[in-house]
């Protein structure tokens, strides 16, 4: 049994949701539409169990820092997908410590979201369609994480994009949802453009796309480094462009806030906890490349910092609860990239930078999921109203939602001992370490400052949203009816579990180094010493969290008048923040619109230049004909005259010849 | 008893002749059933041929030349050596055969023709017998091109396809059908005549250099001879441009594409399906069959930069043109320009990856664009408009059609897991490592086209299929049934195409294995050329843009654009 499990555990994880998807599409559409969630929940339970088991398979004999050497991966090949010329891409599933951790996170959050959604989506005419798409998403996400080579990763990279498209556009009759779905897919494609070129370059440089061959032994990379070291910079920058698209980093972050048009469970799962972290996963996975490209790592940190700051500024003034959380997600993803980029700060930092980024991704998945699902629960109770100006004081009406949201908010704000605190603090620490030594210390100093500022803003906007929603006088919108109801059990239970995770999972796996030590078993990650605890950063971040929460309390509970004054005084800055620093507007005005203009020009040129030229050339024979045509005018007299003329010319020439010969 | 191959080629034509002679006044009902029976029979026969082909033993790599047809039917047609003491000792032949590449294209043709008959079922009411006869004759012509291995026979079939399509567009087309049909016919014919001149010159030059060659019109023999005794680079260059002229118009490559959107917009749905699905492939197939194996120097030193540039510009340009279209059919037509650009990028990568990608892209484009045209025809039949701004919320009104459209769009924009991706990926990957760095630029431009592809096609989905329902008023009253979702016939027309999109996306390997020996044989020529012939031809490739402009273009009839 154990042997069978060890060999087949890999394909079992993605196969369960895939079967669920097929079942729902083929059978669930017709029979038992109301129970379409059951195959998915069942499949995800199987997947989660398999993922947990996989954790023990990948790193079998307990683990600790001493056993670092025994790292290995598990692989299984399903079938040969493409093999022609020098391209050899089998469908290979490969799991190591990093994938196993990702899978556990993905399947556990998905399972809870699926249970939540079974109640949340009740009564929707597209109920089976929703669960079919969600099953397909979990399948794709698992495959993305399990992909054994770059091309397979790209396949599921795009496949999760497809699922995101289908789910953002779930209510496709809404024009805003239809537009948001297209925008998400197209903007993601811009990133994918970089990723596929990066994959071409890897194929051309190394002759293989296989993770095991590329990452598990440093031979290939060292060989290239000896010959053409610059090429790794190009590879890394192209891969990072892919990550920027998928993980909504500046300047491609514009799609994520719009993606909130989708049903809230989708926002929680895809646009907060799992899919958007694929970019972080990609960069972490390619650490063996990135360590040789310090300038790209600095770019990663810089983009991450810019994104975190911009998104946090935008989140300060949003009134749409889901949008606050969306910008917060963008901002936190920026944090993860800052952490990944910190690897450029020195030799020994790479491992820690990657670990802390992955750890923040892990904790973030839980506390952001609970925040989104609580927002969904609020929406459910408020009759799909999500504008925070239209409701307030909900803590009495929705006690469960209130507590779970509070748990998530505390974790996000970085209150000591909760999940967000541990992971965020580690990122700050590694940035601080990077800013202390090395040639780029100044650069990382600026990044650290931005990270601290963002941390303060995070605490503020999170609790602004919390206080606006749950405190103040009790107020319901008309859509809610008279007695808004709190989350039913199918929604409350996942919320509670996630809330507990948001509070405790950081403490369980962070300071105990459970997560970090496990992740270090990933083959290909560089070695490093133990990272010291940075008490200073812990202190500063705790203070910042307290200040942020305190300010929010002061402004939105104690004396809301101040906010109105501030809005009036700083109306320009307020408007800028409200509109996301006009980046979206800029994108439409200066990128999309000119391209549309170019398209119109192309259309014009095609019709009036290229085609006109063709018509002109086609006109020439006709023109030629029209010159000669008058001669053939059918007048017998003319013909006779020309005949006479010809005869005369002939006669003259004959006569001349005769004269000359005599 | 003629071989299955011959039956497959001529069965549709016989059915067409029978339909015209025995029952010229056939009602639409009778005619369409005859056509359906004939196309299904041809399809079955083509599978029989495929089974025969697959049962053949593998040919070893050393025993074959660059082109190696099997299931050969070879009969002397005209033996010039008997004509007199001074005549050249050459034979013209009736030379039919199949290799992996042509087999896959033949199967594509037989499948698409069934769909075209099904989508014409209710749309064609006037002169139905003639319509279906044209369609069947067109099928014969298309299959014939892919099965001919004699240059003249190839050319005869190649030009022959113009005639039925001319009538299909010119009689059953839209309001500008006569202008469109005339332009399409004259433009492609003018190009092809230069090609014919080039092909004959190629044969004559080869015979002069190798007097021992008695069958110079046979493509395999000619390719074998040229592989051993290549022509000089200058001669190759001239011949390349001449032969490429007709194929460039046919593909169509930018800037010779303007006949295509017009012809598509005016053509009836079945005509569009076959035009995009198969007829354009004649151009790419011509490049693959006539130029790549025959003129390796010119293909490498002129073809790669020239065609690469034209194709990558075509991808971007075609995508932009598609982006600003309001007529969905025209948009799909421009997307064809872009997709065929990928195909040409792959072919002229001149390596195994690229060429097989090019072949795959031919099949993929046939399936996905064929399906797109079917869907466009289906909602046009219901609402009598194809304008984006007059349509909205089709998916709410016709959910099944919405699913089909979303699926087809993703197949067309190259979503991994569906067929388009494998072809595009191989084309771009092949190009990426072709031609010392310039391939990278072409490949990057091509990859940009993938982004634009998502933009314009998902734009159609967004505006016409999603959003609130906003459709032209339905006609009520006698004779107008309420508008309903796809019926069984329409599902039958689409399902095979969509199913193949999925299967080829998930399991492309059988198809790749089918074409691999033929692709490898062609690519092998370039392995040698690259090693032995460094930059011998740089001046020609620099000058080729200038020469390109002098290409004789098209003469049109008296009709001008109204």
Q: What's the oligomerization state?
A: heterodimer
Q: Report the principal-axis shape of chain A.
A: globular
Count of alpha/pi helices of chain A: 26
Number of helices of chain B: 21
Rg of Cα set of chain A: 32 Å
* Largest interface summary: A-B, 59 and 67 residues
| First-residue to last-residue Cα separation of chain B | 53 Å
Q: What percent strand of chain A?
A: under 5%
Mean pLDDT across the residues of chain A is 88
Overall morphology of chain B: globular
Mean pLDDT of chain B: 87
Report the end-to-end length of chain A measured between terminal Cα atoms: 122 Å
Write structural notes for this entry.
Chain A is mainly alpha-helical and 662 residues long. Chain A has 26 helices and 2 strands. In chain A, 73% of the residues lie in helices and 3% in strands. A two-stranded antiparallel sheet of chain A has the order 1-2. In chain A, a hairpin with a 2-residue loop joins strand 1 (74-84) and strand 2. The longest helix of chain A is centred in the last third of the chain and has 46 residues, at 583-628. Chain A is globular and about 130 Å long. Chain A starts with a helix and ends with a helix. By secondary structure, chain B is mainly alpha-helical. Chain B contains 21 helices and 2 strands. A two-stranded antiparallel ribbon of chain B has the order 1-2. The longest helix of chain B is centred in the middle third of the chain and has 33 residues, at 177-209. The termini of chain B are far apart. Classes of the chains: A mainly alpha (662), B mainly alpha (562). At the A-B interface, strand 1, helix 5, helix 6 and helix 25 of A face helix 7, helix 12, helix 14, helix 17 and helix 18 of B.
């Amino acid at each position: 049994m154990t042997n069978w499990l060890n060999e087949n555990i890999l394909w079992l994880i993605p196969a369960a949701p895939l079967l669920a998807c097929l079942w729902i599409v083929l059978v669930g559409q017709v029979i038992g539409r109301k129970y379409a969630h059951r195959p998915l929940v069942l499949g995800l339970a199987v997947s989660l169990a398999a993922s947990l088991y996989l954790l023990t398979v990948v790193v079998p004999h307990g683990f600790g820092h001493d056993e670092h050497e025994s790292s290995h991966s598990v692989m299984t090949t399903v079938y040969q997908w493409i093999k022609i010329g020098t391209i050899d891409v089998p469908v290979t599933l490969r799991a190591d410590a990093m994938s196993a951790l990702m899978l556990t996170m993905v399947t556990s959050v998905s399972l809870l979201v699926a249970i939540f959604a079974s109640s949340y989506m009740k009564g929707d005419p597209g109920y089976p369609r929703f669960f079919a798409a969600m099953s397909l998403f979990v399948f794709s996400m698992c495959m993305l994480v399990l992909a054994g080579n770059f091309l397979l990763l790209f396949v599921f990279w795009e496949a999760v994009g497809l699922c995101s498209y289908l789910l953002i556009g779930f209510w496709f009759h809404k024009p805003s949802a239809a537009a948001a779905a297209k925008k998400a897919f197209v903007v993601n494609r811009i990133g994918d453009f970089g990723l596929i070129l990066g994959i071409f370059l890897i194929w051309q440089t190394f002759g293989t796309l296989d993770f095991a061959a590329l990452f598990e032994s440093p031979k290939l990379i060292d060989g290239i480094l000896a010959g053409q070291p610059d090429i790794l910079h190009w590879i890394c920058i192209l891969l990072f462009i892919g990550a920027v698209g998928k993980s909504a980093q500046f300047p491609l972050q514009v799609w994520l806030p719009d993606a909130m048009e989708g049903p809230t469970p989708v926002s929680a799962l895809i646009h907060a906890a799992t899919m958007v972290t694929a970019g972080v996963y990609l960069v972490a996975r390619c650490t063996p490349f990135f360590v040789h490209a310090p300038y790209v790592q600095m770019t990663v940190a810089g983009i991450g910092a810019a994104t975190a700051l911009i998104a946090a500024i935008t989140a300060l003034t949003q009134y749409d609860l889901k949008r606050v959380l969306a910008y917060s997600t963008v901002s936190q993803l920026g944090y993860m990239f800052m952490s990944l980029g910190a690897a450029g700060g020195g030799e020994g930092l790479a491992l820690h930078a990657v670990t802390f980024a992955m750890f923040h991704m892990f904790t973030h998945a839980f506390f952001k999921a609970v925040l989104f699902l609580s927002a969904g629960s609020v929406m459910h109770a408020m009759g799909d109203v999500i504008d925070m100006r239209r409701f307030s004081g909900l803590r009495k009406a929705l006690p469960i939602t209130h507590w779970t949201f509070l748990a998530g908010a505390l974790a996000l704000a970085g209150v000591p001992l909760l999940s967000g605190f541990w992971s965020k603090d580690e990122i700050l620490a590694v940035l601080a370490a990077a800013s202390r030594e090395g040639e780029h210390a100044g650069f990382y100093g600026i990044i650290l400052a931005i990270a601290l500022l963002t941390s303060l803003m995070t605490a503020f906007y999170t609790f602004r949203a919390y206080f606006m929603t749950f405190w103040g006088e009790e107020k319901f919108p008309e859509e809610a009816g008279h007695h808004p109801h709190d989350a039913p059990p199918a929604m409350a239970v996942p919320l509670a579990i996630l809330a507990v995770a948001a509070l405790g999972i950081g403490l369980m796996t962070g300071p105990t180094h459970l997560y970090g030590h496990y992740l270090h078993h990933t083959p290909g990650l560089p070695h490093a010493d133990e990272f010291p605890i940075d008490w200073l950063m812990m202190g500063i971040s705790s203070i910042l969290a307290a200040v942020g929460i305190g300010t929010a309390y002061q402004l939105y509970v104690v004396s809301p008048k101040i906010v109105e004054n501030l809005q009036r005084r700083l109306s320009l800055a307020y408007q800028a923040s409200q509109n996301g620093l006009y980046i979206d507007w800029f994108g439409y005005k200066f990128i999309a619109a000119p391209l549309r203009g170019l398209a119109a020009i192309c259309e014009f040129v095609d019709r009036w230049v290229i085609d006109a030229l063709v018509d002109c050339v086609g006109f020439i024979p006709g023109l030629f004909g029209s010159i000669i045509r008058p001669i053939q005018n059918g007048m017998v007299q003319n013909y006779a005259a020309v005949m006479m003329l010809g005869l005369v010319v002939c006669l003259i020439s004959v006569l001349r010849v005769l004269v000359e010969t005599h | 008893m003629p071989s299955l191959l011959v039956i497959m080629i001529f069965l549709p034509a016989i059915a067409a002749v029978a339909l015209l002679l025995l029952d010229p006044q056939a009602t639409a009902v009778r005619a369409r059933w005859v056509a359906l029976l004939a196309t299904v029979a041809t399809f079955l026969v083509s599978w029989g041929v495929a089974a025969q082909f697959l049962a053949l033993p593998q040919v070893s790599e050393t025993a074959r030349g660059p082109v190696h047809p099997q299931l050969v039917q070879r009969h002397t047609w005209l033996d010039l050596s008997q004509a007199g003491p001074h005549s050249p000792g050459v034979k013209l032949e009736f030379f039919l055969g199949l290799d992996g590449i042509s087999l896959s294209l033949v199967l594509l043709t037989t499948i698409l023709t069934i769909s075209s008959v099904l989508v014409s079922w209710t749309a064609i009411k006037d002169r139905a017998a003639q319509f279906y006869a044209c369609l069947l004759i067109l099928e014969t012509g298309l299959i014939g091109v892919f099965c001919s291995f004699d240059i003249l026979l190839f050319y005869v079939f190649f030009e022959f396809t113009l005639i039925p399509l001319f009538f299909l567009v010119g009689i059953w087309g839209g309001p500008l059908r006569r202008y469109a049909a005339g332009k399409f016919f004259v433009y492609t014919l003018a190009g092809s005549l230069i090609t014919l001149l080039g092909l004959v010159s190629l044969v004559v030059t080869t015979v002069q250099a190798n007097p021992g060659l008695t069958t110079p019109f046979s493509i395999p023999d000619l390719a074998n001879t040229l592989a051993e005794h290549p022509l000089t680079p200058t001669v190759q260059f001239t011949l390349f441009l001449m032969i490429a002229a007709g194929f460039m118009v046919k593909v169509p490559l930018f800037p010779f594409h303007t006949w295509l959107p017009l012809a598509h917009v005016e053509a009836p749905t079945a005509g569009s399906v076959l035009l995009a699905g198969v007829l354009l492939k004649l151009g790419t197939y011509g490049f693959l069959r006539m130029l790549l194996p025959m003129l390796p120097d010119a293909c490498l030193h002129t073809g790669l930069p020239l065609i690469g540039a034209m194709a990558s510009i075509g991808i971007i340009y075609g995508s932009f043109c598609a982006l600003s279209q309001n007529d969905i059919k025209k948009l799909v037509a421009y997307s064809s320009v872009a997709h065929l650009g990928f195909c040409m990028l792959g072919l002229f990568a001149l390596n195994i990856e690229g060429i097989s990608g090019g072949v795959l892209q031919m099949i993929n484009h046939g399936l996905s664009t064929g399906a797109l045209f079917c869907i466009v025809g289906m909602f046009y039949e219901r609402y009598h408009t194809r304008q984006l701004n007059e349509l909205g919320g089709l998916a709410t009104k016709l959910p099944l059609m919405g699913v089909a459209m979303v699926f087809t769009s993703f197949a067309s924009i190259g979503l991994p897991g569906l067929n388009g991706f494998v072809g595009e990926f191989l084309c771009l990957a092949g190009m990426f490592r072709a031609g010392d760095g310039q391939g990278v630029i072409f490949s990057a431009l091509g990859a940009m086209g993938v982004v634009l592809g998502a933009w314009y096609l998902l734009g159609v989905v967004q505006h016409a299929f999603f959003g609130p329902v906003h459709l032209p008023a339905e006609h009520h009253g006698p004779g107008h049934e309420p508008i309903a979702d796809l019926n069984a016939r329409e599902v039958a027309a689409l399902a095979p195409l969509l199913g193949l999109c999925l299967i080829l996306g998930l399991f492309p390997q059988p198809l790749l294995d089918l074409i691999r020996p033929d692709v490898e044989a062609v690519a092998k020529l370039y392995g040698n050329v690259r090693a032995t012939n460094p930059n011998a031809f740089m001046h020609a490739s620099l000058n080729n843009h200038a020469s390109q402009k002098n290409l004789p273009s098209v003469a049109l009839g008296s009709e001008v654009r109204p």
